[in-house]
Amino acid sequence: MKIIVCIKQVPDTKGGVKFNPDGTLDRAAMLAIMNPDDKAGLEAALRLKDQYGAEVTVITMGLPKAADVLREALAMGADKAVLVTDRVLGGADTWATSTTIAGAIRKLQQTDKYDLIITGRQAIDGDTAQVGPQIAEHLGYPVISYAQDIKVEGDKVIVQRQYDDRYHVLEAQMPCLITALAELNEPRYMTPGGIFDACEAEITTMGRADLVDVEDGNIGLNGSPTKIAKASDKVRKGAGEKVTPDSPEEAVSYIVGKLAEKHVI
Predict the structure, then answer these.
(1) Tens of pLDDT along 2-55?
(2) How many folded domains does the chain comprise?
(3) 239 domain-assigned
(4) Can you tell me the distance from the alpha carbon of 25 to that of 23, in angstroms, rounded to the nearest whole number?
(5) Domain containing 190: what range?
(6) What is the distance between the alpha carbons of residues 44 and 1, in angstroms, rounded to a whole number?
(7) Are the C-beta atoms of residues 73 and 42 closer than 8 Å to each other?
(8) Alpha helices, DSSP H only, in 151-215?
(9) Is the dihedral of CA 41, 47, 50, 53 positive or negative?
């Protein structure tokens, strides 16, 4: 089994979000990390590697410094790493990003057959949840999103897909693309030996010329139809539901009822 995991280097929003005057993220002023949903997807792939002996290739699109998250993935246990970087790819929205990554995957498919592609549900610097399903559409693969559990049986993948207060169980023939939730698992730590090996590992670099079946009008800023009108790190939350029980017993009954309604118990 061969697996591709798409990962992204994103700003660490825990320390606060900083914006440029034009409303875009000031990435240079913020620490960078591997996107949490992507890291959960990587861990899922590594567990399939532990179970089935799968080969795991990580791929990212970004500036040359995005190689840092690739080396982190290698230190965690990934086998190969691919960096897609080129000036003409800058300013890409979800459409242009997914088009580019799909073109890079087609290039990899010229020499290898991949059974599974795993992406994070969404990136914390965009929260669109569009890139994974768009990659699947470009490649003509079935897609299962919001995965909270992944199993492989023969040439099929069985996934628990999160859905409101319950989940669906879906089965798909491989090759298939899955988008993973951060809640899918607890990612492993890098090992000391893995860190040393990752520092010396070769990272394959692709540019515009390496992309397969990709038109110039669908990449970079010129190929991005999405325009950001405003960005903010403040999200207004509702007041929620407030109740005033007459007794502790009534309070317990209410809470238990809500948990049962949400299928928690």
Answers:
(1) 999 999 999 876 666 666 665 555 656 568 899 999 999 999 999 999 999 999
(2) 1
(3) no
(4) 7
(5) 2-234
(6) 14
(7) yes
(8) 192-200
(9) negative
